[in-house]
Amino acid sequence: MDIASRIRAHFAESAELKLAAAEAMAPQIARAAALMTDCLLADGKLLACGNGGSASDAQHFAAEMVGRFERERPELPAISLTTDTSILTAIANDYDFGQVFAKQVRALGRAGDVLLAISTSGNSGNMTAAVSAAHEREMRVVALTGKGGGRIGELLSPADVHLCVPHSSTARIQEVHILTIHCLCDAVDASLLGDES
Questions:
Q1: DSSP H or E segment with residue 192
Q2: What is the pLDDT of residues 98-143, one digit of tens each?
Q3: What is the residue extent of each domain of the chain?
Q4: Top CATH class, 3-193
Q5: What is the 3-state secondary structure of 82-129?
Q6: How far apart are CA 3 and CA 176, in angstroms?
Q7: Disulfide engineering: 44 pairs with which of 112, 123, 140, 165, CB 3.0-4.6 Å?
Q8: pTM score of the predicted model
Q9: What is the Cβ-side half-sphere exposure of residue 8, based on CA atoms within 13 angstroms?
Q10: DSSP conformation class of 169
């Protein structure tokens, strides 16, 4: 197979997964957006975390909330827990890398806030610790996972929302994750500002 054919195959697989995931995930994405909107309307905030590419997705989500997505609107309170290198390295060095997000959730999270926990496998130790810390703080969790949801899926309560991409490839899961984040941003804006034709 030549490289151009490989590239076309990636595009085709990604497109097919997105269409299949839309059917499976749309109602839960709408539920997650409603949870986030209710949190913001109650003067709460959104915290987001993840590792590697998922860390970038957490930053992307916070940037869209604080800045804007596609429409002008007031800034929305969202914090990515993946960006402060002093906090991350101090916690990893003084305690354990498994606590880098949980300690931030306990420091910044309050009852009624929402944690967006992003993990393609659902099995990262520092992510499961973050979910547990969010529950300690009486926060709700929106978990963005794949591969069946892993340990994070097992930790979620009925009040949480599990957005699990129905696939096993990390690359394909990440591609649906970013689309899901854009859907969340758009749905929050539409809920707060009204539908825009």
A1: helix 170-193
A2: 999 999 999 999 999 999 999 999 999 999 999 999 999 999 999 9
A3: 3-193
A4: alpha beta
A5: CCCHHHHHHHHHHCCHHHCCHHHHHHHCCCCCEEEEECCCCCCHHHHH
A6: 23
A7: 112
A8: 0.96
A9: 5
A10: -
